[in-house]
Amino acid sequence: MAIDMAQFHQVFFEESFEGLEAMESGLLNLDMGDVDVEEINTIFRAAHSIKGGSGTFGFTAVSDFTHVMETLLDEMRDGRRKVTQPAVNVLLGAVDCLREMLTAIQNEQDIDTQSVAEHKRHLDQELRGEVSNSAQVSQVATAKPKTAPATLKSVAPGWRITFCPHLDMLKTGNDPVRIFRELANLGALETTVDQKGLPDFYDLDPEECYLSWGLNVAGDIAQSSIEEIFDWVEENCDLSLQSFSDLAQRDLAHQPGVVVSDDADPTHHQQDLSHPEPIEESSDAAKVKTVAKEESKVANKGSSSIRVETSKIDTLINMVGELVITQSMLSLVGEHFEIGKLDHLKSGLAQLERHTRELQESVMNIRMLPISFVFSRFPRLTHDLSAKLGKKIELKLVGEHTEVDKTVVELISDPLVHLVRNSLDHGIEMPNERLAMGKPETGTIILEAYHRGGNIVIEVRDDGKGLDKAKLRAKAIEKGLIDKDTPLTDKQTFELIFMPGFSTAEKLTDISGRGVGMDVVRRNIQSLGGNIEIISELGKGSTIAIHLPLTLAILDGQSIAVGDETFIVPLVSIIESINVTDAMTNKVAGKGETFRLRGDYLPIIRMHEIFDVKTAKAQKLTEGLVVVVEGQGIRCGLFVDDLLGQQQVVIKSLEANYRRVEGVSGATILGDGSVALILDIPGLVRLSNQKHAGRD
Amino acid sequence: MVSETADTKKIEQFLTFQLDDEAYGVEILKVQEIRGWEPVRVIPNTPHYIKGALNLRGAIVPIVDLRERFGMQAKEYTPVTVVIVLCVENASGSHVIGLVADAVSDVLDIRSGDIKKSPDLGSKIDTRYMRGMYVYKQGMIMLLDADRLLNPAEFEGISRLVE
Fold it and tell me: Is the interface score ipTM higher than 0.85?
């Protein structure tokens, strides 16, 4: 029977990546002082299913690796091991490593065995470090017998296993005899049976297991190989595993009732201290690789999928049902149509319209994902970087449930990472600097998402040192980006950081500040049809706000006519439409036309000139209409022939088959099947400025 | 662009079409459909040979006038003017683009080995967009490399292929 397993791979990868995310956030949420067992359980379950899945698909490297993690987690879960920060760091590193392995497999690349081995070594160290410290020591002892501690010399290697099956273990098809047989293969086996649980003969259910065992296996055996034997039954029994040397050590303590504290162990302590440094480094290196590989993944694997709540699908099915009913009703009316049925037809059409709109909305809804998909990676980033930079930083996430279009979710994460890194690296000061400035020692970064109008706003706020206007200006002059005496508003000064090749960081770090980036960030956001703005106060902090259109697929539009051409202006950007009189308009320096609107002077963009429409009817400003629009904080008037009507338009990409056209954000199809272009107001303003500049 | 390594006996089909009295060919596998000319929506600020955009069952498809692209005399569109809709591939993915031609003529089976390398026509003529030439009934058919010719990133002025 040949089943093509490859068809399930995609599902496995998705689930595994989800599992990894769950593990990561779980690990970061762990509170060292008061460990939530449920949290560890969640992490354990995620690791367990990755192990199971990878085993099924034959990714042995992954399952072997996960097995080690799982062992460590299992001990934490049972309370046999204390949850310590170094251990969590090791696990976080392992999560990264696992992600890298899975990405490599997904892209059919080779796994970086060196990094895997490195992480595995850390895990093993952590494992041995606590539970079987002495096992490690005894290994050392076999290698260098002379230096081995005298107290432990006499203890033979081996394990004491206490195996208490649950009553229903036999029902799962597991037979203890088989387990014992396998144990006997590992080394000399000594068994003792505990019959205490055995009920009276008449109450005995032959399908239940009442016995428990104490097993001594002698020999130099790895803990993992014993655990492997019990792998199948670990859910159905209480199992404890102790090495002889551990027991011996406990005996040495000679303090019945007093448990030897882990912290008293000097070897363990040393390990703790020596751990964090190399792990931070390797995990960071791993991350760089992951990023690089993710990029290649985007190029390789075009297909992507989306997880949708069942309730959303149910709504959709419901609505399609309604639509079918309406359709059959209408066809009934149409079949034997007479004028008396006109009202019937009209109401049917109205119903059809309503249903179509509802259907459209719920289909759009499917593409909406909570922004937490993007935000969830930042606690980890903050955790890693703040440790690396020696800063104390608290990250607050606000409005994680704000829903945004899937495309936005995919494309916003890289720019956001950049912004948060900037805040971490350049924004927040070192703890002593903060204290000196009278600020709390711990810096705060707030990542917030909310809806405003037809936009979604994502803000990165920090209470760090803020942008220094004078420094920005000096830097721009030094780099030749502006002239010495160019007057700049505050806003324009802040905008300087978006110029290519601009960086104010005095020393470049590997985290941020290479001078590339902010311009790329802005370009990415503009390609999504959004814009970015900065508000900053020196010494108080900065806020970077990203405004993005709520959905990229549909909008309310106003059709306008310019000659024979029809254009769509997004309704959200229209403020009002007015007839101008000669008295309201005037020319600036003979070129730029402006008009006065309640005390403000706004530039006029003549649509027929900028788009070279020869058929335009209105040539004089008084003959047509001026539509006052706003985009990216710039207000201006569009001079058009006429307004046609309002309608919802489905945005079609012009870039899919062609390329970006300045001043146009996309195209749509009108009711008569013809194409209309959707105007991009900020782009129009840029275009108009270019044209005017070209004329000088 | 004659493939030297591939089997020269491989037969490829080309759709040939007319621009004035010149014959051109494109690989038929790239052709999606052939439709009559219908008015299009002008895209502002684009090269003159981009006639505009057409609604092709919900997709916005740019229409290129090949005569104007090659710098030939523009001709009024008639009822026989056709739009050849091609699906081209390039670095940025696949694009659907329409091509205005005077008329389509034929579908020819051409052996790869019979495609002559386009001659060096001097620096004035750009042969980058040609796959080669094919001699047919005393005439010559210019086989176009649609992928290169219709790359949206390259929609800038190119010189006429043949003078």
Answer: no
